[in-house]
Amino acid sequence: MSETKTGTQASVLAVSDLEIEIRGAQGSFAVVSDMSFSVHAGETLCIVGESGCGKSMTALSLLRLLPDAASISRGKILIDGEDFLAMNQRQTEDFRGEKIAMIFQEPLTALNPVLRIGEQIAESVRQHRKCSHKEADQRAVEVLRMVQMPDPERRTTQFPHELSGGMRQRAMIALALACDPKIIIADEPTTALDVTIQAQILGLISDLQKRLGTAQILITHDLGVVSEVADRVIVMYAGRKVEEASIYDLFDRPFHPYTIGLMGAVPGSGASSQNGDRLADIAGTVPPLWDLPKGCAFAPRCPGASARCLEERPPFTEKRPGHWAACWEHDNAA
Predict the structure, then answer these.
(1) Quick one: which of 56, 98, 126, 283 has the fewest CB in 10 Å?
(2) Residue 297 to residues 23, 131, 240: CA-CA distances in angstroms?
(3) What are the structural domain ranges in the chain?
């Protein structure tokens, strides 16, 4: 279950009971379990957590782009009301780009190195729209201009390696937006960029999303980014949701001990400020997904864990109106 800001409006994306398994040296094990959420037009949902918590696997599953060793073992993904997992390969390819698109973390590896930027965008447009080569080329220039690419006509003739990191990411965003998808997934879209360019790209993505009314899922480990762009936030730990709330409620009243720990590690956050601006850390390490504790996965690192936490996994329940979490010991903290 999840809180939404748009009442009865139909979801652009609805995910229920998603489970992703991976085959490894330790056998098959779940890297994402019991993931359910929805996103509406014009809404930004941020999924946050440490490296290895399942954020990127969740994102890749939404486009059916999981690596060969991984597979969706259970769940349903509805995009614009249609069952994405029930589609054949041709239908899936038609949906990608037209209904759902992704801004990848490193555009230099995501973009085709031997095709000019304009060709890559135009090819996507021709695949999803009935148009001439000339019209597709014009659309390429149009979307490059939309993402504020300097001299867009010239950039269409260049290869990815000829562009700066910030320009490549703008080209990646233009490629994602070329066919007006209903939902954009951005997986750590500014990780490889310097701080100044990061702010420009995040501002650009946010502005375009508001202008176009596109639904957006932003995958990140940076709570500073989350505070700037999110409407709602999902916090993941060890492959599961541990908390979900509106951005205002989450930052004002974080519920789960893991979320509170993350807040304490952010400079200038409420949690760190209450500690005299001294940043906190979370003791211990994330357990391996093939050897999770019997009870709550966070219990071995949690200063408030009880015997029950070590033995029983807490359910994901609504603790306050619109605020969901999985925790035994904080049930009376509302």
Answers:
(1) 283
(2) 21, 52, 9
(3) 107-180
Amino acid at 143: V
pTM over 0.70: yes
Neighbour-count burial for 215-240, b at 16+ CB within 10 Å, e otherwise: bbbbbbbbbebbbebbbbbbbbbbbb
DSSP 313: P
Residue 143 has φ and ψ, to the nearest 5°, of -75, -30
In angstroms, the CA 118 to CA 290 distance is 44
**Chain length of the chain:** 334
Helix, strand, coil % over all residues of the chain, rounded to 5: 35, 25, 40
Q: What is the pLDDT of residue 1?
A: 45
Q: Which structure tokens are listed for 124?
A: 């996507």
- pLDDT tens for 211-222 read 899 999 999 988
Phi-psi map region of 140: left, alpha, beta (phi>0 left; psi -120 to 50 alpha): alpha
Q: Which of 236, 289, 239, 287 is nearest to 29 (CA)?
A: 289
Estimate the crossing angle of helix 133-146 against helix 165-177, to 10 degrees.
120
266: Cβ contacts below 8 Å, ≥ 6 apart:
223, 224, 272, 279
pLDDT of residue 5: 41
Query: Band of the pLDDT at 105, cuts 50, 70, 90?
Result: confident
Which letter does DSSP use for residue 49 in this model? -
Q: What confidence tier does 19 reach under pLDDT thresholds 50, 70, 90?
A: very high
Question: How far is 297 from 293, CA to CA, in rounded Å?
Answer: 5
8 Å CB contact between 302 and 313? no
Place of tokens 């360019």: 197
Residue with tokens 């999902």: 234
